[in-house]
Structure formats: structure tokens, C-alpha cells
Design goal:
- The chain is of the alpha/beta class.
- The protein has four domains: about 100 residues, Beta Barrel (OB fold (Dihydrolipoamide Acetyltransferase, E2P)), CATH 2.40.50.140; about 140 residues, Rossmann fold, CATH 3.40.50; about 90 residues; about 35 residues, no CATH class.
- The protein is about 50% helix and about 20% strand.
- It is built from 13 helices and 15 strands.
- A hairpin with a 2-residue loop joins strand 14 and strand 15.
- The chain starts with a strand and ends in a 10-residue tail after the last strand.
């Protein structure tokens, strides 16, 4: 018998002696695994539903999940591919009772029997209800529902952005309510999808874009996130984490009006204000112009009354000051007269003419100084009174209101002009970027005649060395996918 060198192990080995006549044929491991797979395929149903408890659930870097379904007596290894896992509304966790749907197959390279799961549902509760409770508990623990972190709604929003679908009655109802309450409001629509796959991401991106471009849009005061009523499934986009976190991160206050009054979503809990309906959100955030005018009139009347009281008080103070001044002058005059009489008496007692003339001159000078002091005091008081009257006229509500109204008119004209220019530029940039994205999208590459081929686990096949004859592969084209089996491998250049 001749030794044969094995390149795989680097050691010589001796071939097995021929089996005796009548013995079963010798098969390779691959042949045995293929026989087992064929037996399974012919004897098991194409689709199974299996109830059990999740154990050792783990998602790997490529997005595929491997776990075990178990009951009191047995365990079943399972795998769930990334696409199927991404369609789940809830987060699978160890210990959760579920019903899994899929098929049994032998992973031939390792001889491992696995349950390939296509669907997974919580046992005893709905998937959406469980997902709602999981996300609600998570965000509540993070403090996203706390009142202290919510932004105050402005008393009089001048510029608002409405994020909703451009079709349907919701937009018309909200705008009608808003303009009826405050005709001077400036409202802008950010059209988005509010239902179905991708709706939550669209609305989250809209909130982020409005915050990023708020200055260019003209200082946005408020965002209204609204949509009409529907089932739990219809409103589910407002329970997705990507949208909820975008609302919490917004620097601009956000008010929601989602569905009807009994409908409550997680977006309502994290928003700064929840309206019972879309029109209810508009009514809660946009004041009535008539109410504002009444408040302004009331404030003007109050200011006018306070101003009159101030004038009356100032007049009373002025009269009191005049009375006090007159009394002071009279007291000084009386004192001067007494002094004069005393001096006269002294002069009479002294008799010399020279002393009498000197004393007379002193008395006359004192009289002149007293008269001048009285005149200066009266003139000063009159000037003070004129200044107070001028200040009262300049500070009147009519003068202030006129200046403020003129300034607001100039600002409104400039703001409307800047808003129109910024919006036109933003539309142009958006259109250009959409065209670039469409040209660079993978779907455009597929339409040019290319395709993508992957293995059963989603790995993209880039070289012939990644496959072997008999392997199942999937090819994606621009208008659909198809499965095929690898035949003979050939090496060669494409061109």
C-alpha cells in the first residue's frame, strides 16, 4: 500500500481499505448532511409556528439575531435575519414568551439544525402594545416626560411651521382656525408623510431641519406637529423613538395635535404642549386677535388712569410746595419786619445821625435781598412745574402707542420680504439636492443594468471564491429579486 501526502494536514496518510461486500456505501460528511436536509424538507411542513420562551437572545454586528426557544423540556436553536428583525415593532428580550413563525433547516457546513424565524409575536399581548410600553418606560426613566424640561409656549407666536401631510382636511382645518383667531399670523407648511414606513424618520428630519434653518426662515416661534385620527397602526409613527427624541431635542417649542381626544401617543407626552385634536392644538397656542385688542385697550385705560393719578398727585404736590413756599416767605418777611423794628428801636435809642443812616442802609439792603430771593424761588418752582408737565405729555399712552405701531409696521414689511427670499432659496437648494440624491441612489445604479448577488445570510458576493457549487444565492435587479443555485465555477476576466 502506497502512502499519499495530504496537502491539508502536511502529513502522509493511508487510504481506508475497501469495505467488505454487502456493507453500506461509504459517504462523505457533506453527503450525509445533504441527505438529512433532504429528509427534513420532505417530511416537515414548509412553515411552522412554535411557542416558547426567548433565551440567549443576541444581535451580532451584521444585524442578524441568534437565540434559543425553550420550554420546560427542550430547546431549539434559532436564527432571525436582519430584514425580519428590522420589521419587529418591539424589542425581544430574554424570558419573553413568544410565538415564532418560520421553517426548520439544517445548516449543512456545520451539521447544525436551526429554526429560521421569519416572524415573532409576543404571547398574550399585541406587538404594538408591548413596543409602546417598552419605549414609554425607557423614556420616562430618562426624564423626557418631566415638566421641568419642557419649553414654554410663546404668548403670541408670530411665525409657526406646521409639520403634516399636505393632503387631507387637517392642514385646511388648522390654517382656518389659526387665521380666524389671528389674521396677522405667518404660517409655513413642511410637508411630510404621517403614516406608514419611513413616516417617523421624515417627521424627525423635518423637526431637525426647521431648527437648523430657523434663523433663515425668520425666527420660528412654534412648531405644530399634527395629523388626523386613525387606528393604533395608523398613528404608530408618532410612537417611534426616532421621532420622539427629535421632539425632545428641538430648541423650538413643539405642540402636538394627533388624532382625536382619546388618542394618546408617546410624541404627546414628550411635546411641550398636547392639543386634543389638530384644531385644538391651534386654539391652545394661537390667541384671538379680538382678545389681544381687548387686553391692549384695558392696559391703555389702566395706563391712562395711572397717568391721571400721577398728574393729580403732582399737581397736589406742586400746590403743597407753593403753599409751603408762601408760608416760608411770609415767615421770613415777618422775621425781617421784627428785625427791622428792633433796629429802628435801637436807632431811636442811639440818636446819632451817622449811626441812623448806617442802620437804614443795612435794612434797605436786606429788603432787596429778600425780594430777590422770593422772585428766584417762585421762578424755579414754575420751571419745575413746566418740566413735569412736558414729561407727562411725552410719556402718554397715545404717543408711545403711535411710535410702537410705526416701528412694528416697518419690521413686518422687512420680515415678509426676508421670509419670501429665504424660502425661495431653500426650495432651490432642496430641489438640487434631491436631484443629486436620485442620481447617486443604488436603485439608479440597478436601472443601468447592474445587479447585486448575496448569499442566504445577506453577504454580498464580490468574488467567485465566496461561493461553491450547489450553494443557494439571491440576485437583486432593478425590478425584482430571484434565487438561483451555483453551478460550475469558472475563473476569467470580465472584459
Amino acid at each position: 500500500m502506497i502512502d499519499v501526502f495530504s496537502a491539508a494536514e502536511g502529513q502522509p496518510y493511508k487510504p481506508v481499505a475497501p469495505a467488505p461486500a454487502g456493507s453500506p456505501p461509504v459517504r462523505t460528511v457533506s453527503q450525509v448532511n445533504a441527505m438529512v436536509q433532504k429528509t427534513l424538507a420532505s417530511n416537515l411542513p414548509a412553515s411552522l409556528l412554535v411557542a416558547g420562551e426567548l433565551s440567549n437572545f443576541k444581535v451580532y454586528s451584521k444585524g442578524h439575531a441568534f437565540f434559543t426557544l425553550k420550554d420546560a423540556n427542550a430547546e431549539l436553536p434559532c436564527v432571525m435575519w436582519r430584514d425580519s428583525l428590522g420589521r419587529l415593532a418591539f424589542t425581544p428580550k430574554d424570558g419573553l414568551a413568544v410565538v415564532a413563525g418560520g421553517y426548520i433547516k439544517l445548516y449543512e457546513p456545520q451539521g447544525k439544525l436551526q429554526f429560521y424565524v421569519d416572524s415573532l409575536l409576543p404571547k398574550g399581548t399585541g406587538a404594538l402594545e408591548l413596543a409602546f410600553r417598552q419605549l414609554f418606560a425607557k423614556l420616562k426613566e430618562e426624564g423626557l416626560f418631566e415638566v421641568a424640561r419642557k419649553r414654554p409656549i410663546p404668548l403670541l407666536p408670530q411665525h409657526i411651521v406646521i409639520i403634516t401631510s399636505p393632503t387631507g382636511d387637517v392642514l385646511h382645518d388648522v390654517l382656518t382656525t389659526a387665521y380666524r383667531r389671528y389674521p396677522g399670523l405667518h404660517a409655513m407648511l413642511y410637508p411630510v408623510q404621517v403614516q406608514g414606513s419611513g413616516a417617523a424618520s421624515q417627521m424627525a428630519a423635518a423637526i431637525q431641519n426647521v431648527n437648523r434653518c430657523a434663523a433663515a426662515l425668520g425666527s420660528v416661534d412654534l412648531i405644530l406637529l399634527v395629523r388626523g385620527g386613525g387606528s393604533l397602526e395608523d398613528l404608530w409613527a408618532f410612537n417611534e423613538e426616532v421621532l420622539v427624541r427629535a421632539i425632545a431635542a428641538s430648541q423650538i417649542p413643539i405642540a402636538t395635535g394627533i388624532g382625536h381626544e382619546p388618542d394618546t401617543t408617546i410624541a404627546d407626552f414628550v411635546a411641550d404642549l398636547r392639543g386634543p385634536t389638530p384644531t385644538g392644538a391651534a386654539e391652545l397656542t394661537i390667541p384671538k386677535a379680538a382678545d389681544l385688542a381687548a387686553q391692549l385697550q384695558s392696559l391703555a385705560e389702566l395706563a391712562h388712569r395711572d397717568m391721571n393719578q400721577l398728574i393729580q398727585q403732582s399737581s397736589a404736590d406742586l400746590r403743597t410746595a407753593g403753599f409751603e413756599l408762601t408760608s416760608s416767605v411770609e415767615r421770613r418777611c415777618s422775621l425781617a419786619m421784627r428785625n427791622l423794628q428792633n433796629l429802628a428801636a435801637q436807632v431811636q435809642r442811639m440818636e446819632p445821625r451817622h449811626a441812623l443812616a448806617q442802620r437804614s442802609h443795612t435794612v434797605f439792603a436786606a429788603q432787596q435781598r429778600l425780594a430777590a430771593a422770593m422772585a428766584n424761588c417762585v421762578h424755579s418752582r414754575r420751571q419745575q412745574l413746566a418740566t413735569v408737565q412736558q414729561n407727562l405729555v411725552a410719556a402718554s399712552p397715545q404717543a408711545l402707542l403711535g411710535r410702537f405701531t410705526e416701528r412694528l409696521d416697518h419690521l413686518a414689511v422687512a420680515l415678509r420680504r426676508a421670509t419670501v427670499q429665504s424660502l425661495a432659496a431653500a426650495h432651490l437648494r432642496l430641489s438640487t439636492r434631491q436631484q443629486r440624491l436620485e442620481l447617486a441612489s443604488p436603485q439608479a445604479v440597478l436601472r443601468r443594468g447592474f445587479s447585486i448577488t448575496t448569499t442566504h445570510d445577506g453577504t454580498i458576493i464580490r468574488t467567485a471564491a465566496q461561493v461553491h457549487p450547489g450553494q443557494q444565492i439571491t440576485t437583486r435587479t432593478s425590478n425584482g429579486d430571484f434565487n438561483s443555485t451555483v453551478g460550475t465555477l469558472q475563473q476569467g476576466n470580465l472584459f
